[in-house]
Amino acid sequence: MSLSTINTGLGFINTINAHIALASTKWCTILHKTAAKLVHKRRFFFLLGSLSTLLLSSTLFFHNLKNKLLLTRNKKALRDRRKAFTRSLYKIELHCHLTGSLRLSTLNELLKSHNLPPYTPPPTLTLKSCFTAFPHIHSAIKTVQNLSRVTFECLADLSYANVIYAEIRTTPRALLNSTKSEYIETVLSCFSEWSLGDSKLLPRLIISVDRSKPVSEAYENVKIAVEKFNHPSNKCLVGIDLGGDPTKGSFIDFLPVLTLARTSGLKITVHCGEIINPSEIDEILNFRPDRLGHFLTCTDEQFERARDNEIPIEVCPTSNLLTLGLNSDSVSLKTRHGTLRKCIETAASFSISTDDPGLFRTNPVRELWSVSKAFELDEWRIAGVVWDMVDQVFEGNRKTRAYLARDVRVRIKKMLRVLEEEGGTEK
Ligand SMILES: CNc1ncnc2c1ncn2[C@@H]1O[C@H](COP(=O)(O)O)[C@@H](O)[C@H]1O
C-alpha cells in the first residue's frame, strides 16, 4: 500500500469520524426532544438502545481501521528508513565472480560485436542453468579490451552500491592474442587504474580454480597467483578460490595444489556444499580454508565444526536460494536457508555477498536488504553484519586493514548516532 493511499484513507476516516460525532450531537438533540414526547412509551427505549449501539459500533469500527492504517504507515516508514540505512552503509563484498557480474546489456553488446547471437536468460535460474550461462559470457569476453570494460563496469557497480572494499574473483583464461597470465595482469592493471580515481572502493583479486577443469590447469593458475603475489609491487592479489560446477571434479584432487597456494602465503576460500555431498564437506573442513563459499547443504555437526574453527561463511542469498531450487523471496530466505538462519541465530562468522550479480540481477544493497527484511533485523543488527565482515577480509596489509575497519566502523557509529538522535530506536 502506498503512503499516499494510506494518507487518503486516514483523511477519509477522520472525515467520517467527524460526521459521526456531528450526527451523534444532532441525534442527541432530536432524541432529547422526542424523549420528552415519548417518555412513557417503551418503544422509545428500544429505539434509543439500537441507535446508541449502531453509533458506538460504527465509531469503534472506524477507530480500529484508523489504527490499522496508522500502523501500516509506520511500518512502511520504518522499512523505508532501514532500506535507506542499508544503502548508505559502507559495505564489503567478499564473494563476487568477475564475469558473473557482467551486465546483461554489456553481454549482448559484446556478443553482437563478435557477430554472436544474443543471450536470453532463462525465466528461472537454477544451479544447472547458471552453468549453461557462463559459456555465453565467456564467448563475449574475447579480448583484453572486453575484459577491461567488464572489470571497470564491475567496479563501478560495486562503488555505486557504496562498497568500499571488494574481493573479486576470476578464473584466468587465454584471450585473443593474450595468455592466462596477461588476463590477470589486465584485471590487476584495471584495479590499479581504478585506485588512482576518487572512488573509495578498494578492489582486491582472488584467482579462481575451476574444479571442472583438469588439476593441471589449477597448477597453472596457482603458479600465476604465486608469481604475482610475491612480486614486490603486489597490492591487490590476496587469495585463491576453488569453484566451478560442483557436480564435476572432486575436492580431494585439488588438495595438493591448494596446499601449495596456502604455503605460499595466499588465503584460500573454497566453494562448499552447493550440492549434497557430506563426505566432500568433511574433506574441505579438514583442510580448514580461510573462508567457505555458500556452505549450503552442511549438517548441524558440520556447521558447528565451521563455527568452532572460526571459518567465516560467504552467504550469497539470491544465488543460494536459486541453487537450492527455491524462490528468491523473504519467506524462503527465512525458512529454507538453514545456513543463514544458523549463522544469525548462533552468531557464527558470516558475510553477505552477491556471487554473480549480473547473472542473478542483484547488487550488494539488495542482498543485505533481503537479509534484513527476512530476519527483521533492525539498523543495529544490519550494521553488526557489516561490522563483523571487516575481520574476514583477505587483505594482508595491516595498515590497509586498519583504515578499512576505521572507515566502515566510524560510518556505522555516525549513522547509528544520527538515528538515536532522531529517536529511531524502535524496532
Ligand atoms: C552459482 N555459484 C557458483 N558456484 C561455483 N562456481 C561459480 C559460481 N558462480 C560462478 N562460478 C565460477 O565462476 C566462473 C565465472 O566467473 P569468472 O569467469 O571466473 O570471472 C564460472 O565459470 C564458474 O567457474
**Strand fraction band?**
5-15%
- Per CATH, which architecture of the largest domain? Alpha-Beta Barrel
When the domains are counted, the total is 2
Order of helices and strands: HHEHHHEHEHEHEHEHEHHHEHHH
**Remind me, CATH topology of the largest domain?**
TIM Barrel
Provide the residue-averaged pLDDT: 91
Order of strands across the widest beta sheet?
Answer: 1-2-3-4-5-6-7-8
Keywords: Hydrolase, Membrane, Metal-binding, Nucleotide metabolism, Purine salvage, Transmembrane, Transmembrane helix, Zinc
Pathway: Purine metabolism; purine nucleoside salvage
Protein name: Adenosine deaminase
Catalytic activity: N(6)-methyl-AMP + H2O + H(+) = IMP + methylamine
Task: Explain what you see.
The chain is α/β, with parallel strands linked by helices. The chain folds into 2 domains: 3-86; 90-414, Metal-dependent hydrolases (TIM Barrel). It has helices at 3-38, 42-88, 104-113, 127-140, 144-160, 180-196, 215-230, 251-263, 278-287, 300-308, 317-323, 330-336, 338-346, 364-374, 379-389, 398-421, and strands at 91-97, 163-170, 202-210, 237-243, 267-272, 291-294, 313-315, 350-352. An 8-stranded parallel β-sheet has the order 1-2-3-4-5-6-7-8. The longest helix is centred in the first third of the chain and has 47 residues, at 42-88. The two termini are 20 Å apart. 37% of the residues are buried.
